TrEMBL record:
Main location: cytoplasm
Coiled coil feature spans: none
Name of this protein: UDP-N-acetylmuramoyl-tripeptide--D-alanyl-D-alanine ligase
Span of domain Mur ligase central: 108-295
GO cellular component: cytoplasm
Keywords: ATP-binding, Cell cycle, Cell division, Cell shape, Cell wall biogenesis/degradation, Cytoplasm, Ligase, Nucleotide-binding, Peptidoglycan synthesis
Family: Belongs to the MurCDEF family. MurF subfamily.
Domain Mur ligase C-terminal, chain residue ranges per copy: 318-444
Upper lineage: Bacteria, Bacillati, Actinomycetota, Actinomycetes, Streptosporangiales
Amino acid sequence: MIPMTLNKIARVVGASLHEVRDPEAPVTAPSAVDSREVVPGGLFAATVGARVDGHNYAAGAIAGGAVAVLASRPVGVPALVVEDVQLALGLLARHLLEHISPVVIGLTGSVGKTTTKDLLAQVLERHAATVATDRSFNNELGLPLTVLRADAATRYLVLEMGAGRKGDLTYLTGLAPPQVGLVLNVGTAHVERMGAGPADVAEAKGELVEALPADGFALLNADDPYVMGMAGRTKAQILWYGRSAEAQVRAGNVRMADRARTAFELVTPSGRAPVELDLIGEHQVSNALAAAAVATVLGLGVAEIADGLNAARRRSAGRLEIVERPDGITIVNDAYNANPESMRAGLRAVKALAGARRTVAVLGAMGQQADASRARHAEMGRLVAGLRFDVLIAVGAGDPVAMAEAAESSNPEVAVHTVADVAGALRLAGALLEPGDVVLVKASSEAGLGVCARALAGA
């Protein structure tokens, strides 16, 4: 964050000052929307959510060191009062970017955004000062918060951009215009909000490449036909990545290394280098290639890129997060979110990790699957059966029951159980698990199975 006085911030966002003793007091640290994450010298943005009103935590934020609160009403402590806090954060972020000059990299896709962002950040930060999205803060609040962490020394600004509906990426790229745009894939995540199918999702995701300048770069997945179709929607130079032989950044000799980690030969226009990821699952190849494609157009050589990928570690919780318990049970927490594509990848990765060990799947609902939801859950049940998981615990009513029924009818050897809620899942899993088991816990975040995964990991 570039230091700015409260007076200056008020002018930028159109705020009025309330309870402010010193209008020239400087804000020197990033902003936060969670009062528990306020740092001394920063701003606390009081947003109103479905269950929590940040204005109620304003006093605590000031006590925690915030210089002032960005609020939509007076809160009895120093505040910058605006009509719309979200809009004000965006205006402040755009103002900051006009006064620094990082290379802005936007990335989007239905699956793998956070893992790819984490890999890319770890490659780039070995080369120059890099700021990247924290966790999955990729929406109209999270993106400005990321931008506001940047300063004059920042060379690369890596922004994960989520799209829940059409127009979201147009808004986000308006706040932080990217010079480099990366599109990972088009799947069924958020299809309920976007339209009838993948073509509607592709229309929304393609807003990123439409925002790129003529001297920018669009990195497109040559293995995804919907992403390939975005080539005509951008003025930027295109670089293709993927496992396709035609891709300029691609993988050769893909193989499974020790403990389901993926190894391959990275091929870029500058040469070849071996990569062995410290992440499980063959689907990680695509994520690594996406990161490598960005690094390639930024001028890094193949050896530098491979070294960064080899050294990279998982940074974000709840995404194939592996915990080895003292009793030999392995918990794989992949419960941050779920859709059919990520569910398939998670199930296959855990089965590869397990080898001959007993496998248990604790699965909840995949959200936002529209009219195809029941059929897609049944498909996941059949996949559990086809992969020969030993135990399935389906959590919740409705679609998870369809998953359980499909698994049971497809392979009677799978021990199938249904439970009503997370508490039931935790009790049953605790009773069924045996030393040596490998357990996958996965569902959309609203199912709350992250609680179950963390409890099982700490047992």
